[in-house]
Fold each of these.
Amino acid sequence: MSLFGKYSQEESIFKNEIALDPNFTPRGPIEFRENENKYIANCIKPLLQRRNGKNLIIFGQQGVGKTLACIKVKEELEETEDEVSVFYINLWKKNTSHKIILELCEQIDYKFTQNKSSDELLQIIEQKINQNSAVFIFDEADKAESIELLYSIIEDIYRKTIILITNDKNWIYKLDPRLKSRLMPDSLEFRPYSQQEIKQILKSRMQLAFHTGAVSEDSIDEIAKKSFQTSDIRTALFLLREAALLAESESLKKISKAHTQKAIEKLSEFKRPAQLDKDEEEILSIVNQNNDKTTAEIFDIYKTKSNSDKSKRTFLRKINNLEKANMIKLEEVQGIQGRSYKITKLSDF
Ligand SMILES: Nc1ncnc2c1ncn2[C@@H]1O[C@H](COP(=O)(O)OP(=O)(O)OP(=O)(O)O)[C@@H](O)[C@H]1O
Ligand SMILES: [Mg+2]
């Protein structure tokens, strides 16, 4: 085969590589999220009787199916209900009121947006949407620069359900109290999947992505275990695809344990920031040995271990760096000495 020769359909290990893309939406009901989907549907149901719906905040770690569950609800409503319009907007991408308004215009198919102010456009949107009931799904809601637009939606759209999706469990507490009291949302947590559940989800994806027998039980177990540590199904999809590409580059049609191992090593390189300094390395190793302790407890161990005067401020800065690099997770807890954070490792580095 030439350097860039393509694999023919018969040569490729993949039946449908797209099925491993994180943005791929599998058909049918979502496994292990039936209750969550029912909960979301119940918030929306009053709209079908032309009554006002319930608002909802959905929270949970990354890669636990929050977006997927909402996309499914959107698809189902669009298939079965003409009376309810559904708007899905990712507020990380559309992070200001004006960008959200333009996106809503696009979704209601209104094209004459030039030379019109946000207020004018908003009036047009409201008129159109108020002919029906509406579900607004605002994903990555905590990433928006401003969510003032929510006031207008709450006040001026008559029959709606607003769904806000976030990773940050405490985001609701940070909202302006006036907004909170108008929104009055229910809240729904998406808990992380168990290792067994991840394995089952993977198996379903594999049936779409690979020909039979391409992945051994050992490899699935290894990948499910690794993904369980990050709680993120995207990790599993990444590892499966990487391992398969490695096998394919050797013209093999079966993923071996070695391919899986190599893919896992690649994941660590990819997730690890370019360089951790000496203190960050040390803190990470302490966290690895003392999972689920609070920042104060880890700081005490760190101080004793390094046997020197370490400043708490510098320590907290390092902790922040590690969180940003996705190596640890911080969860707010209320202790005797006030608010503190529990530190959980996200992976073995
Ligand atoms: N129960 C499931 N069955 C099949 N695939 C799933 C399931 N849960 C999650 N996935 C897949 O895992 C990936 C991550 O899911 P999703 O994007 O919904 O996560 P999320 O909770 O929205 O994460 P984030 O907070 O990072 O946005 C997607 O590719 C999704 O299709
Ligand atoms: Mg998401």
Note: The first helix runs from residue 34 to 48.
Amino acid sequence: MTTTLPPSTDNSALQDAANRHLFVGMTNPAQLAEEGGPLVMDSAEGVYVTAMDGKKYIDGISGMYFRNAGHGREEIARAVYEQLSRISMNVYAGATPATIQLAAKLAEITPGDLTRTFFCQGGSEANESSLKMAQAYHMRRGDKGRYKVISRKGSYHGSTYGTMWLGGHPGFPRTDYQPRPANVVTVPGPHAYRCEFGSSSPEECGELSAKAIEEAILFEGPESVSAVIGEPVSQPLGGVIPPSNYWPLVREICDRYGVVLIFDEVITGFGRLGEWFGADFVGVTPDIMSFAKGITSGYFPVGGSIATAEIADVFSGGPDKTWSHMYTYSAHPGGAAAALANLAIVEREGLVDNARARGEQLAERLAEMKEKHPMVGDVRGAGLIQGIEFVADRKTKQHFDPSLKVNARLTEKLIARGVWIRVPAYIVPIAPPLVITADELDELATAIDESLGEVEKELGV
Ligand SMILES: Cc1ncc(COP(=O)(O)O)c(C=O)c1O
């Protein structure tokens, strides 16, 4: 096919070429073309991104929940440059100083006795690795029938074939991809605003949601269940904080039936909740933790799975103990250098504490919006992972008719006010970089508040 390379400074030529040649994740080329094309970004600094057409936006969800240390960090870029200039990749069965240091750093900052890390390139691969590790762990211990995985509705664990079928939420339909793997078991999530058990209090919802996991284990047969996987706080439905009794009960249940507990900390890891990890936030340590995104703030694709010594040690000993699992680019030193530089920034600038403080400020603003706007059904979250659920009727909690395109209306109003948040389904997700200042957070919250008001006016709410 003949085509011309668009000049890197020509916004409309780039958008035009993108409309013809590029898949932009989770979007549809015809729809994007109707909007002109994808937002082509030119530069970014702190919480702001500047598009090729010169417009500046607050990055309202940190790219895709990864830009913890903010945009434009030359320090991280330089660390990657220096690393790649010296040694750009491992040899087979080798390691590099940066990767070893990063593994040691993770053992230091993660809770409990999480100690040995397998590195990969992103969150889906991390969860695949964690699930494979859990199953292989049972096999090596002679527990050969454990292959089922329990996950919760409302969760998202990735896009690979295995991880895609875990959890589930309205923004990620899986109708094109059949069949559903036979080892996947799905239970309700601990979502107090819409508790599937019709419970009268968050605690009751927490208890019943944890019990649903126990019932699934007993129904499937404990000897067939390998792992329970969940995000300590899940994002797809907008910062769903589980009732405080939920994870301690799930931990007890997993221990009772010999099931491995995997935390997917791909979003919650590295400060987003105002604690280093979601595990710290909910006060429960998993057996395996998957991570990605915030470990490098997105400056290099890195993910991984860190396991307790009890799990990791079964893969050590004679040759038959080896864990047969790898990716070509596992433990990339460029990624490790990015992660070490990024974590140094998070520590030096106190970004975990900032996430907590700005999170409290955001929660106050959201509570005010709930008072003021009838379309706000619920506001929830903690730290810098929060969300608004909008509803047509507060009492029934019914959502707006999709034909009203309330999400598209809100997206348009937000973008017009210089906030880059694409609103999915019926949730406004809010997760800016952890470097956000009090003034910037006010600017973001005011834009959301005004956008809600304008949409309510249009809808006659
Ligand atoms: C909680 C969670 N787990 C896993 C993933 C998948 O990560 P990746 O897109 O890096 O494969 C994501 C991505 O958004 C996520 O939010």
Note: The pocket of pyridoxal-5'-phosphate is lined by residues 64-65, 122-124, 127, 156-159, 231, 235, 264, 266-267, 292 (CB under 6 Å).
Amino acid sequence: MSSNTKVVLVTGGSSGLGKSICLRLANAGHTVYGTSRKAKGEQVDGYSLIAMDVTDNASVQQAVEAVIAKAGRLDVLVNNAGLGIQGAVEDVTPELGQRLFDTNVWGPHRVSRAALPHMRDQGGGTIINISSVAANFGLPYRGFYSASKAALDRMSEALSTEVTRFGIKVVTVQPGEFNTTIGDSRLRPEVISEAHRPGYERAMEVLGGSMHYSRDPDELAQVVERIINDPKPKARYVVAQGMQKISILAKKLLPGRMFERKVRKHYE
Ligand SMILES: NC(=O)c1ccc[n+]([C@@H]2O[C@H](COP(=O)([O-])OP(=O)(O)OC[C@H]3O[C@@H](n4cnc5c(N)ncnc54)[C@H](OP(=O)(O)O)[C@@H]3O)[C@@H](O)[C@H]2O)c1
């Protein structure tokens, strides 16, 4: 293996952004392990797809140990596996919200905990957490998605300051909207209350329209490739364009209620 090629583990390597990351990194000559809950260790387009459920401690531990057993090290972990959720905050039950957090927050936490001792022993590594532009706002009818990604971002910041002394870099990537099938597996409350139905349905129409015209996942994979080749990556990368990017700045500059009105107008 050349010194520039790395051993990379990408959670959620079976579809969408994770698959694009696996394909791009494998093409560049890296040794890539993607994960899927359904995988059986098969080879797909130059990378291995191994079994992992990020909500299950034993499954996470097993998958990370399998990578170490096969490749001898783990240079880069991309915490990409994640779920969406839709529903008014009031309609989402605590149980449903917990399922989301188990995948989007405790998932990356579990996999990082399994990877960190190996990275520390080998004197370094990089953890890339795939967050979302949504982490910057409380998106209406996707409030728990925003909350889960905001929690992931804060956890990444803290982790970064704790592990930099071991030569481990932690990077947050906030994608805007990309053309994947994430909308199909979004968690949904069983009951949509009549009070919230009109606002919820309109917001889902707006969201459906923008997902349809969104961008190629390989653009995000290119950013991940740049990060792992950069000896000094930034703490955070926003991979978004137009309104999605401008909104982050607007949130910082505008008074809170004014920003809220703009968000409401967009979704109405
Ligand atoms: N698409 C976007 O516009 C967008 C924007 C911002 C952020 N993101 C974030 O990007 C990441 C990838 O999203 P995507 O759009 O590529 O979604 P996707 O196409 O639905 O892919 C999700 C991936 O996560 C895996 N996964 C889901 N639950 C899992 C679990 N419990 N354990 C292990 N793997 C699990 C799935 O694998 P299996 O089902 O095969 O197990 C799949 O490979 C997510 O964190 C998402 O929040 C996406």
Note: The radius of gyration is 19 Å.
